[in-house]
Amino acid sequence: MRRHVLTLVIAFVAALAGVAIGCRLLMPAEPQASDIHALIHRDIRLDPEQAVALDRLEARFAATRAALDARLRGDNARLAAAIEAEHRDGPRVSQAIDAVHHSMGDLQKATLAHVFAMRRVLRPDQAATFDRLVAARLTETGR
Fold this sequence. Notes:
By secondary structure, the chain is mainly α. The protein contains 5 helices and no strands.
């Protein structure tokens, strides 16, 4: 009996470690759209209409991002359950990993759609600065 309990505890800890490592390695850093939003307000002189339009876009994206983040958390929970059930890279784990990757891709696509929507609010001269900010943010290291 004691041996079975120890085995279950070890399996559970291993599953948690696997999820933690997977989240650290596989999940994207904090979405960059909000960072870009802050940079726009800091580095680009916006007129009042542009500021309002960007704030509206950010509010809409916050809801979209929250839904996608929730879906990703659910996928990670299913991955944890699959790891705990299979204790190997079995079919449930593989399917759960695919679901996590799909959700991560959807989050990245939504983030990029948001970035492009923000760009459409800007004048051409502002858009050139925005493009440089986005490129710099995407190529940063040490995040």
